[in-house]
Amino acid sequence: MDDDEARTRLLDAAEALFYAEGIQAVGMDRIRTESGVPLKRLYKVFPAKEALVTAYLVRRDLRWTADLRGAVAEAADPVGAVFEWLAAWFSEPDFRGCAFLNAYGELGTGPAAVLDVVRRHKAELRELLAEAAGPGHEGLADQLLILVEGATVVAALDPGPDPARRAGKAAAALLARAGAGTR
């Protein structure tokens, strides 16, 4: 097993375990066991848990954001597409809320590298929402971000598509009032 394979296996195990059970609840020994990566190789690839948590969040951010951007890219109603995508995500059987807010909730302003990834993820989501709102309506991004985040938190407590649908209706009303939102 080379370092690239070990990294992939470790990140796969970390993502599954951290998202399902929490970062603090899962130790490095559990990650090692689940990944099948020898302890020496684990610490060669990720010298500390903070490095593993940061890499997990970076990888999740890249995938999550790319999936959302893909769903919105060609939509006639890009903001509506955001909330449709969220409804599908909230309906997944393993949905446990936002991994980034979960990490922040567990670690607070703890490890700076982790906090940096969380902040960058939220800034990128805000940028995506500004693009979806359309030219001249970028200022709606903060309000749309609050609707997305609120729906995500509500869905974490009560999984299913309804929080996204309700937030999507609020977003549509906001956009209609501003004369924005469709291409």
Automatic annotation (TrEMBL):
Q: What is this protein called in UniProt?
A: TetR/AcrR family transcriptional regulator
Q: Does the keyword NADP apply?
A: no
**Domain HTH tetR-type: residue ranges:** 4-64
Keyword DNA-binding carried by entry: yes
Alphabetized UniProt keyword annotations = DNA-binding, Transcription, Transcription regulation
Q: Name one Pfam family in it.
A: TetR_N
The cross-references to InterPro entries, in alphabetical order and at most eight, read: Homeodomain-like_sf, HTH_TetR, Tet_transcr_reg_TetR-rel_C_sf
Residue ranges: DNA binding: 27-46
